[in-house]
UniProtKB/TrEMBL annotation:
GO terms for biological process: lipid catabolic process. A motif (GXGXXG) lies at residues 34-39. SUPFAM superfamilies: FabD/lysophospholipase-like. GO terms for molecular function: hydrolase activity. PANTHER family: NEUROPATHY TARGET ESTERASE/SWISS CHEESE D.MELANOGASTER, PNPLA DOMAIN-CONTAINING PROTEIN. Keywords: Hydrolase, Lipid degradation, Lipid metabolism. A motif (GXSXG) lies at residues 63-67. A motif (DGA/G) lies at residues 188-190. It comes from the Bacteria. This is Predicted phospholipase, patatin/cPLA2 family. It comes from Amycolatopsis sacchari. The keyword Lipid metabolism applies. Residues 30-201 form the PNPLA domain.
Amino acid sequence: MGVSVLDVVRARAAEGSVPGARRDPYRLGLAIEGGGSRGTYSSGMAVELERRGLTSVFDDVYGSSMGAITGAWLLSGKAEHGASFWWHPDVLPNVIRPRAALRRKPVVDLEFLMNEVYQRWAGLDFDGVLANPVRLHPIGTDADTGAAVDLAPHLRDAETLKLALRGSAGLPLLAGPLVRLGGRRLLDGGLTEPIPFHSALRDGCTHVLVLRTRRADERPQQPPRVENLAVTAFLRRTAPATLPAWRGRPERRRTDDEQLAGSEALTQVLVPPGAPDVSRLAVDPALLRRAFDLGASAMATAFEAGR
């Protein structure tokens, strides 16, 4: 039996390992699942890593959709501060606005989230994220090819980082016009790689810790019929190459779950059975705080197991 993911984490933490001065032969990745407001779960997990001083044990951080935003907060050194805006009363009700669709406005206002909430209110240090020796890899979907794309090579400054995070989280139909970066039109990374451990393995990561936003007892399901029809129509008009990815999401989830459960190179931290359902567009502060706390507790339990 080889060295487990958590063994690598613990060993690096014990010796104070930092990027550029590793004593082991491994490349350790952190992969953070997205899912809109369900990201409160993986946000809690990431904050528990920060509380334990474990950010620097990783070599790369991969995130899809809201997972990319959580990764940015983690690499800024202020993940716990950033997470508090999940249940701030003036944030999500102004970011997620279902009635905006009646005015042909984005239901999920990512531009407001980046520029007003994260930059002006919360003070997310975008330049600090880029300066961190642990590299951030936001995963998006190329609207013209239907392929997952790692946006890390396009991160040059604060503005390109904000565009990458918006592009990675650009929910079809809900987030407004597609973001353009690096010559690509971008859609939500969750369309093609909702759990971005594949990119980590392709990049040569020998071990990957995967932070999930799904419960351990949750099974892949087709989206509701109305949502499926609306998103399919939108993609057919706007990004037809992504239609196979949209239609194949439940099967991809099943395949990912099987791979995550059967590989020594991958360790996933799952939301516990019986945890509350959190929809992608949830805004209830009490529910989101509860999800965050459960995510942090799940990470603590995983880290302490087997000691």
